[in-house]
From TrEMBL:
Keywords: Hydrolase. Residues 523-538 have a biased composition (Basic and acidic residues). Residues 413-503 form the Amidohydrolase-related domain. Residues 1-23, 523-550 are annotated as: Disordered. SUPFAM superfamilies: Composite domain of metallo-dependent hydrolases (SSF51338), Metallo-dependent hydrolases (SSF51556). GO terms for molecular function: allantoinase activity. The lineage of its organism: Eukaryota, Fungi, Dikarya, Basidiomycota, Agaricomycotina. Coiled coil: none annotated. The keyword Cytoplasm does not apply. It comes from Lentinus tigrinus ALCF2SS1-6. InterPro entries: Amidohydro-rel, DHOase/Allantoinase_Hydrolase, Metal-dep_hydrolase_composite, Metal_Hydrolase. It holds the Pfam family Amidohydro_1. GO terms for biological process: purine nucleobase catabolic process. This is Composite domain of metallo-dependent hydrolase.
């Protein structure tokens, strides 16, 4: 194996250049050392050869080759005394020691069940002491930074096993995308390190979410995409990619060969299924063969090396030739030698089985299957992999965005853990913002993953999977000083770091802290999903999701803690139990989908149901009745599988570049989303079962003019069903973005003409309503500059039309910059996503919220009287999480948003901003068990006045 050149000799690192004589003398010393090593290894060879019959010419490079032979079977890992080190190899000079006192410490030890109360001493980049620290130990520290944790939680730094941070950089630009190479399906010789961008805007954001270490992998365009880079997110003094490496697996010994150095694990990306198949126009059979062909080539090199070394070590040099190696393939050879952790992007059973068979054929282990949406259905297949069962790195709820992810389940982490398989939650950043990786662990716990395994899934387990459990993933003496001090239990929704340390260095200069209720310091109670988990397995990942109406016309909900009702475009609290006493709990009587009365257990409402009536009773166990939430911003209702065109309504023609077909109405046409609705999608039904009872969707466009939105019931089975279509059309949607062509100014000019010029057909009908202030104009925009032009255009149009117009901005990543102006102009904003993300150049000036800024975007806009809604920017799978988004927004506002105002963010506010008008009937109400809709509760029923039923979930 070819040794790579590492650091320069020490004499090149002097602060001032040495004199010529000194340089020559030092060079002679280094050469003497090298020649001595050569002679030392050559002499034994000579003696061996002289004792054999005949004369054999010993190659000049024999010592080098024998040294390589000696290391062929060396295993990676730290030196035996690694955790007795007194200083980290990443220690930054000048870093002051830190003492964190009065902490509740989740150590990650003893299978993740160990929790300590005490102190943590950080010094020289490592954890020096944990627990009770005596005075004598502290007496030696003069300049000690003291942090009082006040009893709050400290965890190991969050470890992301699957990220593209620094490779797929933010903001995403053509010049900074180094995620995939398209030079062939098998490229094991590539290294992400060679394309790692140290200027990625995401580093500081991810650190603020507790991320301290990330495995940056190549993308999944290739069957074998290359080698990953395991980095700390803290930039070092040299500001280089190499300086960010946790441990360099490439430069082992400096410039002088040292056989005593220890190997470090390398990480390699494999991928199977739709991605490599699609990029290279292959089938699964082609991809499987590309793996086997590559590994066969590596196997031959490995065997030739083993054969060479067998002969060389016994002095049989005759006709042996040079040591067999190939720089392009050495990494794959090292996979076969167990020195590389293979991280494999693989979803479906067929692909999982393919890779497992290949591991057994070529005898190499897989560290983890990533994404791996069907692993929970075939744990036995994973257990038959060579060496050991791979870990499984998952999303919590992201699924169904392509066919191979269609059977993804929120219960997968729990099921895998029950089958004794290691579970890792990951980000795939920027697919999911790694700043909120702990949110994936929170959701996994909510759906049944035990709390210790949920916390381990983003700390100690990924550390083990990467072969780095000797230094990260735990709060233990001798480990890297990578810690997070949280404002609440790490598994509590909205848990936010108060401070993050990497290598003992505090990463947030001035953290803005949130005040959380005392209950948030406890591990959250989660619902029982046993029945749903069992059905998921019974139906091979696709359990029936359709709602089932109550067997009785009258349903009585008991043990109700709170009731919230709609009051036109407001939400109000209509009942609250005065205590936890059963007699003060609420009773809600529903008949034919209509709420008949609400009262306490001793009220007339409770006794209004006659014993002879056919009644179904549902105990909410301290739960709540709440207006159903609304989803907006995604293609929910117009798409089943995002990456399968045949499952979608499709995209409308761009009126600015290609024109609407004349057969569809030409320039005067407005496409109606209602005409393309797709009911009964799994994403819609899962949203319904999560309390999101309505969706508002506009025609999908990649251009300027989208068309008319529509509102629909997420629980309906088809359009003709009673209550399925809530409102056929409510508003016109357009989008203004920096796409290069046509220009932003052209798009604004087109909008000005629609508002102030002559139009025809449906465009005229609807823009006449907009001009009269009767219907909102919904404009997709992110940039503050574009939003400012829209506000100016609104003022111009209002002056000429002499009326007030209704404008709504959707997206709004930079809307906070114009909060005052938007409030004064009466322009509403739907933030999509609910938590900002600088994905593109026009979204880069986000307001991140605590701990990086005092205010969140939601709170800032509300402070200036802007009507705010929370939407979705990703695929429809995220609609089910609207309740979490709303609760999180309230928590980030630090008590400034009431529960009723929070509920409005994803219900009545969205309807108002998107032109959906409620009728005389009350909208759907959601019954939750164990808490209200904004807590870790469980939806057990939906009360639907429009359809006259109560659906039992």
């Amino acid at each position: 194996m070819r040794e790579e050149q590492g650091k320069l000799p020490s004499f090149t690192q002097e602060t001032s250049p040495p004199r010529r004589g000194q340089s020559s003398r030092r060079l002679r010393i280094v050469l003497t050392v090298v020649l001595s090593l050569v002679a030392f290894q050559y002499l034994p060879l000579s003696s061996v050869l002289s004792s054999t019959s005949g004369s054999v010419q010993v190659p000049l490079r024999a010592p080098e080759w024998l040294a390589k032979c000696e290391l062929l079977n060396a295993k990676p890992g730290p030196p035996p005394d690694f955790n007795t080190r007194t200083q980290s190899d990443r220690f930054a000079l000048g870093t002051k020691p830190t003492l964190i006192t009065n902490a509740t410490i989740w150590t990650g030890g003893v299978d993740g069940l160990e929790v300590l109360k005490g102190d943590i001493l950080l010094d020289r980049g490592i954890i020096k002491r944990v627990g009770v620290i005596d005075r004598h130990t502290l007496a030696g520290y003069i300049d000690l930074v003291r942090i009082d944790a006040k009893g709050q939680w400290v965890s190991p730094g969050i470890v992301d096993l699957h990220s593209h941070i620094g490779a797929d950089s933010l903001p995403e630009l053509n010049g900074s995308d180094d995620t995939n190479s398209y030079k062939g399906p098998v490229l094991p010789w590539l290294r992400v390190l060679d394309g790692l961008n140290t200027r990625d805007e995401a580093y500081k954001l991810s650190i603020s979410g507790g991320i301290t270490t990330a495995l940056v992998l190549p993308g999944s365009a290739n069957a074998i995409g290359g080698q990953g880079a395991l980095i700390k997110l803290r930039p070092t003094a040299d500001r280089s990619p190499t300086g960010m490496l946790l441990e360099s697996p490439y430069e082992r010994n400096g410039s002088v060969y040292d056989p005593r150095a220890y190997f470090r694990y390398r990480q390699m990306k494999h991928a199977c299924g739709e991605n490599p198949d699609g990029v290279y126009s292959m089938t699964r059979m082609d991809t499987a063969w590309s793996f086997r062909q590559a590994y066969e080539h590596a196997r031959k090199i490995k065997e030739s090396q083993d054969d060479f070394c067998s002969k060389a070590t016994r002095g049989d040099w005759g006709g042996l030739g040079d040591f067999p190696e190939d720089l392009q393939w050495e990494a794959l050879v090292d996979v076969l030698r167990g020195r590389v952790k293979v991280q494999t992007h693989c979803y479906e059973t067929v692909d999982l089985d393919d890779l497992v068979r290949i591991t057994n054929e070529f005898k190499f282990p897989i560290a983890a299957f990533h994404h791996a949406h069907e692993t929970y259905l075939v744990p036995g297949t994973l257990k038959s992999a060579y060496g050991h069962p791979p870990a499984v790195a998952l999303f919590a709820t992201q699924a169904r965005y392509k066919r191979e992810a269609f059977r993804g389940s929120e219960f997968a982490p729990r099921i895998l853990a029950e089958n004794d398989l290691q579970v890792v939650m990951k980000s795939d950043h920027p697919v999911l913002n790694s700043r909120f990786l702990v949110y994936e662990a929170q959701q996994a716990h909510y759906y049944g993953l035990p709390h210790n395994l949920a916390l381990a899934s983003v700390t100690s387990t990924p550390a083990k999977v990467m072969g780095m459990e000797h230094r990260i993933g735990y709060v233990k003496e001798g480990y890297d000083a990578d810690l997070v001090l949280w404002d609440s239990h790490p598994l509590a929704l909205g848990a936010t770091p108060q401070q993050v340390w990497i290598d003992g260095i505090a990463q947030i200069d001035t953290p803005y802290l949130l005040s959380k209720p005392a209950a948030f310091q406890k591990r959250p109670e989660t619902p029982n999903f046993d029945k749903e988990k069992d059905e998921t397995l019974k139906y091979d990942g696709l359990p029936p999701l359709e709602p089932k109406p109550s067997r009785s016309r009258t349903v009585v909900f008991t043990n109700v803690k709170t009731v919230y009702r709609r009051d036109e475009q407001r939400i109000r609290e209509t009942f609250t139990a005065v205590s936890d006493d059963v007699l003060s709990a609420g009773v809600v009587v529903v008949h034919d989908g209509q709420v008949q009365c609400v009262g306490s257990a001793t009220s007339a409402c409770a006794s209004s149901v006659l014993p002879s009536e056919d009644v179904e009773h549902i105990d909410l166990e301290g739960g709540s009745i709440t207006p159903g939430l609304v989803s907006a911003g995604s293609a929910l209702g117009l798409s089943e599988i995002d990456q399968e065109e045949s499952t979608q309504d499709g995209y409308v023609a761009d009126a600015l570049s290609e024109g609407v077909p004349s057969l569809a109405g030409g320039p005067g046409a407005l496409i109606r989303a209602a005409d393309g609705l797709i009911f009964g999608t799994r994403d819609a039904l899962l949203a319904y079962r999560s309390g999101v009872t309505a969706g508002i969707v506009a025609p999908q466009t990649r251009g300027f003019l989208a068309g008319l939105n529509t509102a629909f019931s997420t629980g309906a089975s088809h359009r003709l069903e009673d209550g399925a279509l809530l409102q056929e059309a409510g508003a016109v949607h357009v989008a203004i973005h920096r796409v290069g062509s046509p220009s932003v100014s052209t798009q604004i000019a087109a909008l000005r003409r629609l508002l102030l010029g002559e139009t025809t057909g449906d465009v005229k009908v609807w823009f006449d309503k907009i001009k009269a202030g009767e219907a909102p104009l919904v404009i997709g925009a992110a940039s503050a500059d574009i939003i400012a032009s829209i506000v100016a255009l609104k003022a111009e149009a209002e002056a000429k039309l002499k009326t007030s117009l209704k404008f709504t901005i959707v997206g709004g990543a930079e809307a906070h910059i114009l909060a005052k102006e938007l409030g004064a102009a009466n322009v509403g904003v739907i933030l999509a996503p609910a938590r900002p993300f600088p994905n593109s150049w026009e979204e880069r000036r986000i307001l991140p919220g605590p701990p990086l800024s005092e205010k969140s975007a939601v709170a800032t806009l509300l402070d200036h009287n802007v009507t705010v809604g929370l939407g979705i920017a990703s695929e429809g799978w995220d609609a089910r999480n609207a309740c979490f988004d709303v609760a999180w927004a309230a928590l980030d506002a630090n008590g400034e948003i009431s529960k009723t105002d929070a509920l409005a963010l994803a219900s009545v506010n969205l309807e108002k901003l998107l032109g959906i008008k409620t009728d005389n009937l009350e909208g759907d109400l959601v019954a939750t068990s164990g808490g209200d809709l904004l807590e870790f509760s469980k939806v057990v029923g939906v009360i639907s006045p429009r359809r006259g039923v109560v659906d039992i979930i």
